[in-house]
Design brief:
single chain, alpha+beta, Yope Regulator, Chain: A, 6-stranded antiparallel β-sheet, 48% helix
């Protein structure tokens, strides 16, 4: 909004609301540019953390989200390798780890009960079950502050949690979930016994 002074002086006087609007637009553009830069830096730091530790590949999707995909291993036992995916967007990091097997259709309700019990006790993240395919994954989201922390130090605790926390959850519960799919089990008792072992 602008006003012209009287008397034909030709001077344009901008009112306060117009100038404040301009300032807000400048600030918004600056924040947007800072977010884009933060994505680049954070993705680079996470890539640096992943290199030499896991096999992975990186891509950027049509929305500008950086995507890491690969295999996490190093655990002892039958379930020692897991597919993982990490998405770095403008507002958060999303980490996924996938069970190395699909749940049979007739066992999906039991597995759904089990992961609901597990999710109730988890502070960060949750298990998902795809009822159509039988795929089970663990998903965790990390806010912008996590991106900022990861951008400062690739060896920071947050980088390790982003990468390893989902796969650790899958590792801890994969055998139990598989047990439910293989034979008749009391899900409540099985969950309680496993949780007791993990707490110890």
């Amino acid at each position: 909004m602008r006003n012209y002074c009287g008397g034909g002086c030709g001077v344009i006087i901008y009112n306060n609301s117009y100038m404040e609007g301009k300032k807000r637009m400048v600030k918004k553009a600056k924040r947007s540019a800072e977010k884009v830069e933060l994505i680049k830096v954070s993705a680079a730091r996470l890539e640096e953390f992943l290199e030499g530790r896991v096999i992975f590949n990186k891509s950027i999707d049509s929305n500008g989200v950086t995507v890491f995909r690969g295999i996490l291993g190093g655990y002892k036992g039958q379930y020692d390798n897991f597919r993982f995916k990490i998405l770095v967007s403008s507002w958060c990091v999303v980490s996924y780890a996938y069970l190395p097997f699909m749940v049979k259709q007739d066992k999906r309700n039991l597995v759904a009960e089990l992961i609901t019990r597990i999710n109730w006790c988890v502070k960060v993240g949750h298990f998902d079950l795809n009822f159509k395919t039988g795929e089970v994954r663990f998903k965790s989201e990390w806010p912008m502050i996590a991106l900022d922390e990861a951008s400062k130090d690739p060896e920071s605790g947050i980088s390790k949690r982003i990468v390893y926390q989902p796969s650790k959850m899958v590792h801890d519960w994969a055998e139990v979930i598989d047990l439910v799919t293989q034979r008749q089990c009391n899900v409540e008792k099985l969950f309680a016994r496993t949780l007791e072992k993990l707490v110890k």
